Amino acid sequence: MNDMQKEIVEGLKRFRLEKIEPHMEHDDFEGTFRMDIFNQLGELGFTGMSVSEEYGGLNLPCQDYSYALEEIAKSSVAYAVTISVSSMVQSIIDTFGNEQQKQKYLPELTSGQAIGAFALSESGAGSDAASLKTTAKKVEGGYILNGSKLWITSGGIAKTYVVMARTGAEGSKGVSAFIVEDGTKGFEYGKKERKMGWNISPTRELLFDNCFVPEENLLQQEGMGFKVAMSGLDKGRVAIGSISVGCAQRALDEAIKYSLERQQFKQAIFNFQGLQFMMADMACDVEASRLLVQAAAKSIDDGQSNQKLASMAKMRASDTAMSVTTDAVQILGGVGYTKEYPVERFMRDAKVLQIVEGTNQIQKVVISRMLKKEYES
Ligand code: CAA
Questions:
Q1: Could you tell me the distance, in angstroms and rounded to a whole number, from the CA of residue 130 to the centre of ligand 1?
Q2: Ligand 1 centroid distance, CA of 200 (Å)
Q3: Per the count of CB atoms within 10 A, which of 1, 86, 208, 284 is most buried?
């Protein structure tokens, strides 16, 4: 880490331990999202890390953004995810939006006054995103949206939604991307999901019933929506990888600390080689995942195509988060399974990291397609 990165991580560590950590057990149980925590992260600049200063962002390299998300995730995967999805929306508007769209939507997102959400998935279009059925029919001055979106992170608390809808024929080329604001007539929230983890971050259905969206809210041109969504996900997947590393690192920290204190058979359980080997493997997996995530982030900073690395980073780091949190619960034993220690929360929060922003099986599809291209060329 360079000096700047160390400074970011130190600042965030102080913030999370003082402002986030004390609420986690209660809020995870109650399913409470605190907008004031998000606003405070915004005041510190951490809700708009990637976007340029012109629109209120910090303009940080992706490698710094990755370390920052990792640090927040050590206390709360949920707040880190809220920031990462909102940042994906910002990156999409920053990359594909026109000047008017950037000026209108970016400042309140970068400052943390508003949250952004990304609406691609539908009940019949999860992994096969290009088969989405929500329609956007061209009318005078705009489009009429009809349909529904499912499993939307920050649904209901977000103010700015990037929604993919069909303006043309079947398949990826018939998809367009729109910015839809909370409160737009014909746009309502459906059921709120009850989940295994990510309890602080609401996941909700979005319903569009003859919802008029003005023409100026179309991103790029008709038919560009699938590419807009996929490029957003290229960066989003690196962010999910970063959060996974933070989740895994925290579980490893807890396991080591506990094993040094816990006495059985007249000694600290750390002394048993069976556990030492487990922790050595866990530490290796965390470090290897971090390096892969950083390599993917660097490729974005260097302006190189990163699809393969982004998928590798997301897949490897989230698999590590799942295995390391599971092993941490095992090392803590009986108390690890209770809410007395945070490892069970991190284990529950890890699972969906293997599913969101493309399941890890879809990441393998992306990686193998890229390998085929490389070897055929
Ligand atoms: N960047 C730019 N363009 C891209 C791209 C990328 N990363 N990936 C694909 N494209 C382009 C292709 O070049 C192609 O364009 P042309 O036709 O002009 O050549 C077009 O998009 C279609 O691509 P594919 O033929 O590869 O499309 P496909 O239907 O085979 O799907 C897929 C590919 C990788 C399986 C894709 O559907 C996918 O990623 N599925 C998973 C969906 C997903 O990740 N959902 C996440 C939901 S959001 C979420 O979880 C966020 C959250 O709230 C936490």
A1: 7
A2: 28
A3: 86
